[in-house]
Amino acid sequence: MIFQSFGAAVGQMGDPRFRRVLVLGVLLAFALLAVIYALFLLMIATLTPDLVELPFLGPISGLHQLLGWASLFFMLALSVFLMIPAAAAFAGLFTDDVAQAVEEVHYPFLPPARSLGWAEGLRASINLIGLLVLVNLAALMSVLVIGPFAPVLFWAANGWLLGREYFMLVALRRLPADEAKALRSRNGFTVWMAGALMAAPLSVPLVNLLIPVLGTATFTHIFHKLMAEGR
Questions:
Q1: How many domains does the chain have?
Q2: What DSSP state is assigned to residue 62?
């Protein structure tokens, strides 16, 4: 079921609606990082004096330019960590479009689904980005403890998070919240394994940007297969 759903999602990646969500998520994420960097540079320019007196070296000028260049490299490194949750969060605002595109192509017999709306989509996106940041920070720190097994923890933890969040985003379009949670609980292992499949490309640059769209499409198929099987 999982690989069949994943294959169907990959096969639809050329859908213009998929590309629209992907491009919007990436552009908004880049815009957010640019704003953060601009604010960071403004803070450096405001708080750093033009001239600093250092022992044995005397007056040193141009410190804020040096810090500005250093901050550029820092921001590039930080963007590697922030880009994925930021793109995922922004794309999460449009996942309803992805799920609808999947249903129109593969499940045209279904009645119209309930639209999650901007408020619910924003709340889900904030939850997802917060959980991803916290879990990935914990996974990074775990490298000091479990060493080479850290990637396994990374995939397992992110698999649980991605599976949980994306399944609920899809299921809530068709079911009340309590029924959606019950369906997820009954099929916890399937949801987790599908989430782990989504988590694996998170460590592959550029490919990881596809996860919001690919995850939503995959879990849309999984949800409808589970419903059809009465599980």
A1: 1
A2: -
d(C-alpha 194, C-alpha 191), whole Å: 5
Token pair in block for residue 189: 């292992």
- Ramachandran region of residue 147, left (φ > 0), alpha (ψ -120 to 50) or beta? left
Residue 209 Cα distances to 27, 29, 119, 160, angstroms: 11, 10, 23, 19
Pick the closest to residue 198 from 210, 215, 181 (CA basis).
Answer: 215
Of 213, 205, 204, 198, residue with least CA distance to 20: 213
SS3 of 100, please?
A: helix
Per-residue pLDDT of 32-82, as tens digits, reads 777 777 776 666 666 655 555 555 554 555 455 555 555 566 666 665 556
Blockwise average pLDDT, block size 10, the chain, 231 residues:
85 85 76 73 62 52 53 61 62 77 89 73 68 66 66 77 84 87 90 85 70 86 87 69
The span from the CA of 90 to the CA of 98, in Å, is 13
- Residue 42 sits in which domain range? 2-229
